[in-house]
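S1.2 Input.
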Amino acid sequence: MKRFSIILLGALAIVMAGCSKNIEPTSPDPDAWMHDASLPVPVLFSTGSQPMTKATAIDAAADMVGKDFGFFAFHQNMASWGSSSGNTFADNGIVGWKQNLKGTIATVPATGNVQFTFDDGPYYYPQSSVNNYTFYGYHAHVLDEEVRPQSGSVSVVVALGHNDILWAKAAAEDITDAEGTTYQGFNARYIRKSLENGAVQHPLMAFEHLTSAVSFSAKTDKSVFAEENPGKDIVTINKISILNTNLKANLCIAHKTDESKEGTLAERTSDIGAIDSGNITVQLDETPKPLIGQNNYFFIMPTEEGEGITVQLDYTVDSGEGKVITSSSTYELKPEVQKGDMAGKVGFFAGYRYDYNFIVYTPERIVIEATVEPYEEAFNGPVDVLPKDE
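S1.3 Output.
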């Protein structure tokens, strides 16, 4: 799948649930476990070999400090998962570690890797565990009551509108030693065996954008507006809204039998409504003015190919003679993608950015320009961030 990598660095260690006592290392050297088999193995997310890109195409790199991610790890033997209607991990026979661990970006260096800290860390792999784990991550972290372990899958309820939704999975590659023993899944034995082979293989989380990012701005066309409205009418945008859209969605973190469902958003029919900018006051001139606020983006659930969204623009027109008219206009937006793998297709797709500009020629005539392209990164040099595979 096409992804961009958030490379994680630091003493990020995890103790699996239901395991033996966690032994804290006594050495100040974070790499001491590599030379002393009696020490527990920390669970570190791989630093990899690539420069790290930002977590989203929207935030500046420094803005990612304090952003939080959730992490899960499940035993590879998902066949043991049940299909209970219960809502706990035990009800469903799901073997995992301390679920929904919250990690927060602590630092974003000018070069190198973003460093995470964990609310309850550091943690360490239990020495004797035979469970083989696959790791899952997502953004933005939700409370435990929004986690749904049910019917052979684990999902979380995420809020759309002002949150970019990201997902990642790190599965271990099998290691077979000279004696024919195969090591599968991340655990202490696996990490130590990879160390013996000369290259430690920690989980590498490669996050995917799951939403479409939509921005709006507005301006007047100075020449036409001045000619047809000689200094009298002042247009003020009061609010912009996306109507009949998903306010929340179910994000499938992991699935017992169908990997294609992992990292996908599913509609919640009870959570359909309007997302909006809130009350804003934007008096228009010939300079494009953002209409949303922080980040200037709505993050929406992707549509089916050929489908669009409905946008409402609320505005007032002040004639300057004591007469103020409040009005609204709605627009059906069905954009054609201009770049990337989805070029030529119509719709809102995961991993694409849609920038709209409302041009007010007169208060009665508003034209919309659109630009659609994949997210693009610029951290340690320009890096293309490709959209999620269909």
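S1.4 Remarks. The CA atoms of residues 233 and 356 lie 23 Å apart.
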